Amino acid sequence: MSAPAAGTAIRTKSPHPSKFERAIVVGASSGMGAELAKQLAAEGAHVALVGRRESELEAVAATIRAAGGRAIVAKHDVTAYEDVPRVYEALTKEMGGLDLLVYCSGAQYNPDESVYDFAQDREMIEVNVIGAIAWTQLAAAHFEAQRGGTIVGISSIAGERGRRTMPGYTTSKAAMSTWMEALRNRIARYGVNVVTIKPGFVDTAKTAHLAKKPMVISPAKAAELILKAAHRGGSPSVFVPGQWQLVALIIRHIPSFLFRKLNL
Ligand SMILES: NC(=O)c1ccc[n+]([C@@H]2O[C@H](COP(=O)([O-])OP(=O)(O)OC[C@H]3O[C@@H](n4cnc5c(N)ncnc54)[C@H](OP(=O)(O)O)[C@@H]3O)[C@@H](O)[C@H]2O)c1
């Protein structure tokens, strides 16, 4: 092995060992998804922004382009499952391939006690679970074939237990976390990095109605922590921020007869 030339910097550890050249962010019109798209573009990635609200997507894309980044936009409702392959292929083709898929789309309703709303529960399952399966499955097949790539799914700490205040949402996030784990167990062996993100409280439209938001962080901070986990590799499942891991550990061990008495 030849010695490096005098004055050559030796980089022992890059802050971003896996650089993302091309990324799709599903649910990029606001909140964490918009921040993820902006931060990915700032790192040099060509980013595709997906969601229903085209004007919000275009506004995020304009911010990215004004800062010298590259962004394209696709108006898409994730519950239009039959459209997913066409949108995925069009965006991937336009960017010349794909290294990262982030599934950030999410629906959340917190019904009052004694309210049972099938339409809301159905929407949460359709967006948070079936949409996630439709999008991540395509990326999984693609990344398995190319022997590399990263899939990030934004789940939630809410999926750790079935909560009386949000039955549909906690069910959907538990299912999403299980799906991500199964995907990881299936394709990590092919060099694909499958990352599950379980945020606590993040200051977005989803939590605007809440009076108390312990340990709340900004969407920008959440995006920074999510990308750090995605770059690290090793298919992690991480709480964002990390302090929620201890909370989750405690919550998981509360016996059922006690948990049902808590107003969670
Ligand atoms: N905020 C928190 O405290 C928190 C905590 C844990 C987990 N999360 C999760 O984090 C993710 C992002 O949420 P956020 O807090 O950043 O809130 P947000 O600003 O409301 O973002 C939600 C995103 O989901 C997209 N979306 C919703 N329904 C969709 C549909 N049918 N088709 C396509 N996209 C759809 C929205 O885009 P369009 O409306 O433009 O379609 C939007 O971009 C969600 O999965 C949420 O469950 C949030």
From TrEMBL:
Q: Which InterPro entries match?
A: NAD(P)-bd_dom_sf, Sc_DH/Rdtase_CS, SDR_fam
Q: PROSITE patterns attached here?
A: ADH_SHORT (PS00061)
Record keywords: Oxidoreductase
* One function term, GO molecular function aspect: oxidoreductase activity
Which Pfam families does this entry report, sorted A to Z? Answer: adh_short (PF00106)
Gene3D superfamilies found in the cross-reference section = NAD(P)-binding Rossmann-like Domain
Provide GO CC annotations from the record.
membrane
Name the family the entry cites: Belongs to the short-chain dehydrogenases/reductases (SDR) family.
Q: What is this protein called?
A: SDR family NAD(P)-dependent oxidoreductase
Q: Which organism is it from?
A: Eiseniibacteriota bacterium
Q: What is the lineage of its organism?
A: Bacteria, Candidatus Eiseniibacteriota
